[in-house]
């Protein structure tokens, strides 16, 4: 039988753990609100940007003079996967799910005989992917020091990716991140960023059939905007990821707190039962001692 | 009273302004232009400069560091790379912007071995930035090239 002192120690240690998980949950909740706000604020730009890009893309179309970023290199041999995860763990299956989604794609591409290169953002995803695909990792972006994701961070990653594209290192690029659905659900998402895909405007929408003048030329604008589009998409993904991470952590810590509650309750019951047994034992000893006289 | 149109100014991180305006003066890539309601549809890139917006409550000025604008007869959306209301603009922000551009120029000189195209572009960017600084009454510091 566990002795009383040990039980008491266990109870207090579980209670301490519960305090920590509770605190982490509350911190995550506060951070989640901020992350969601940031994602919300970034939405108007992304929407308008995609609107304009869609228009440009459909008017330039697949003409052979269209920039490579839009048209693609004409091959699909080398793939670049940018896998974005969190810098910290303790957020449920968040990091693993994103890595899993990416791994599934890697396996498929490898079986098709394609070359795969990986850039990781956030060290948790790197840790998972390094085990199996260590030789494919070509770069890692450290976000440990980034308190609030800014557009500059996205631009940095985008520049890294674009430089490699200009250097002919890959043909197609995907990004992986967790899309924020709600606190309970984060959907690991795959998105193609190179060649660029934009929603072409509907034929009947007001903007869809307006003929725009372009200053400077259409191609020059497109060449200017496409790299920015990559940065914008990465920025949106980073923000989604930030919100998802906090959401995942919040629900993970919530269930950890609840588990700790259950554990304290069970341990308390056991403690009381043991105490009772000890008292009964002592009484029996006293009574049987008195009877023996 | 002139016709009003919708004016939106957004940067990647936030929406900066959204209201009705009668005229907007933009620093277009190929020269300044003023757009009023029922302007012909136009998409133009921007150079660093100042946006003048004539709204119902008088004129507002915004600093932009580049980006592009979409003008339709109904309104105008400016998608700036980075943008501040004139009142938010400070010497520190300007210094940082100029540093960034000067850095870019240094790099492009290195990368392109002083070929005219990219180097000129970078130099133009820098001079636009400094002109913008003096326009709003801040003293652009001289980058040490």
From TrEMBL, chain A:
Coiled coil: none
Cellular component, GO, one term: plasma membrane
Topological type in the membrane: Peripheral membrane protein
Record keyword Cell membrane present: yes
One GO process term, biological-process aspect: proton motive force-driven plasma membrane ATP synthesis
Gene3D superfamilies, A to Z: 3.40.1380.10, ATP synthase, gamma subunit, helix hairpin domain
Subcellular location: Cell membrane; Membrane; Thylakoid
Keyword Ion transport: yes
InterPro entries (alphabetical): ATP_synth_F1_ATPase_gsu, ATP_synth_F1_gsu, ATP_synth_F1_gsu_CS
Signal sequence coordinates: none
GO molecular function list: ATP binding; proton-transporting ATP synthase activity, rotational mechanism
Pfam families per the UniProt record, alphabetical: ATP-synt
Lineage top rank: taxon: Bacteria
SUPFAM superfamilies for this protein: ATP synthase (F1-ATPase), gamma subunit
Entry keywords, A to Z: ATP synthesis, Cell membrane, CF(1), Hydrogen ion transport, Ion transport, Membrane, Transport
Biological role: Produces ATP from ADP in the presence of a proton gradient across the membrane. The gamma chain is believed to be important in regulating ATPase activity and the flow of protons through the CF(0) complex.
Subunit-level organization: F-type ATPases have 2 components, CF(1) - the catalytic core - and CF(0) - the membrane proton channel. CF(1) has five subunits: alpha(3), beta(3), gamma(1), delta(1), epsilon(1). CF(0) has three main subunits: a, b and c.
Similarity comment: family membership: Belongs to the ATPase gamma chain family.
Record's protein name: ATP synthase gamma chain
Species name: Palleronia marisminoris
Automatic annotation (TrEMBL), chain B:
Organism: Palleronia marisminoris
GO CC field: endomembrane system; plasma membrane; proton-transporting ATP synthase complex
Biological function: Produces ATP from ADP in the presence of a proton gradient across the membrane.
Subcellular location: Cell membrane; Endomembrane system
Keywords: ATP synthesis, Cell membrane, CF(1), Hydrogen ion transport, Ion transport, Membrane, Transport
GO molecular function: ATP binding; proton-transporting ATP synthase activity, rotational mechanism
Entries under InterPro entries matching the protein: ATP_synth_F1_dsu/esu, ATP_synth_F1_dsu/esu_N, ATPsynth_dsu/esu_N
Gene3D superfamilies given in the database record: F0F1 ATP synthase delta/epsilon subunit, N-terminal (2.60.15.10)
Membrane disposition: Peripheral membrane protein
PANTHER family: ATP SYNTHASE DELTA/EPSILON CHAIN (PTHR13822), ATP SYNTHASE EPSILON CHAIN, CHLOROPLASTIC (PTHR13822:SF10)
Highest rank taxon of the organism: Bacteria
All residue ranges annotated as the ATP synthase F1 complex delta/epsilon subunit N-terminal domain in the record: 5-82
UniProt family annotation: Belongs to the ATPase epsilon chain family.
Record's protein name: ATP synthase epsilon chain
Subunit structure: F-type ATPases have 2 components, CF(1) - the catalytic core - and CF(0) - the membrane proton channel. CF(1) has five subunits: alpha(3), beta(3), gamma(1), delta(1), epsilon(1). CF(0) has three main subunits: a, b and c.
């Amino acid at each position: 039988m566990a002795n009383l002192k040990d039980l008491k120690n266990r109870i207090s240690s579980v209670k301490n753990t519960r305090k920590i998980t509770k605190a982490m949950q509350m911190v995550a909740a506060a951070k989640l609100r901020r992350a969601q706000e940031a994602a919300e604020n970034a939405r108007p730009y992304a929407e308008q940007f995609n609107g304009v890009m869609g228009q440009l893309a459909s008017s330039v179309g697949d003409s052979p003079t269209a920039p490579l970023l839009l048209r693609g290199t004409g091959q699909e041999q080398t793939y670049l996967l940018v896998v974005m995860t969190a810098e910290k763990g303790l957020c449920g299956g968040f990091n693993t799910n994103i890595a899993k989604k990416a791994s599934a794609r890697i396996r498929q591409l490898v079986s098709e005989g394609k070359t795969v290169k990986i850039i990781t953002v956030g060290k948790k995803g790197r840790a998972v992917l390094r085990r199996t695909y260590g030789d494919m990792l070509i770069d890692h972006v450290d976000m440990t020091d980034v308190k609030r994701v800014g557009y500059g961070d996205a631009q940095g990653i985008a520049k890294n990716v674009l430089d490699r594209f200009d250097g002919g290192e890959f043909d197609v690029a995907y990004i992986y991140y967790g899309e924020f659905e709600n606190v309970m659900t984060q959907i690991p998402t795959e998105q193609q960023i190179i060649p660029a895909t934009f929603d072409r405007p509907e034929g009947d929408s007001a903007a869809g059939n307006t003929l725009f003048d372009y200053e400077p030329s259409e191609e020059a604008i497109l060449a200017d905007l496409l790299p920015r589009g990559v940065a914008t998409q990465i920025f949106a993904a980073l923000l989604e990821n930030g919100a998802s991470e906090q959401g995942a952590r919040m629900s993970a810590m919530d269930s950890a707190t609840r588990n700790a509650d259950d554990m304290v309750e069970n341990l308390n019951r056991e403690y009381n039962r043991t105490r009772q047994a000890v008292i009964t034992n002592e009484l029996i000893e006293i009574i049987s001692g008195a009877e023996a006289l | 009273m002139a016709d009003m149109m919708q004016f939106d100014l957004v940067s990647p991180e936030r929406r900066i302004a959204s209201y009705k305006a009668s005229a907007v003066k933009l620093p277009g890539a190929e020269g300044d232009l003023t757009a009023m309601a029922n302007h012909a549809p136009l998409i133009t890139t921007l150079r660093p400069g100042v946006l003048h917006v004539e709204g119902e409550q008088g004129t507002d000025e915004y600093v932009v560091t580049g980006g592009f604008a979409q003008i339709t007869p109904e309104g105008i959306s400016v998608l700036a790379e980075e943008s501040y209301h004139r009142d938010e603009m400070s010497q520190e922000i300007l210094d940082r912007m100029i540093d960034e551009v000067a850095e870019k120029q240094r790099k492009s000189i290195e990368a392109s071995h002083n070929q005219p195209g990219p180097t000129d572009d970078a130099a133009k960017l820098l001079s636009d930035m400094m002109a913008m600084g003096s326009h709003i009454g801040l003293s652009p510091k001289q980058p040490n090239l």
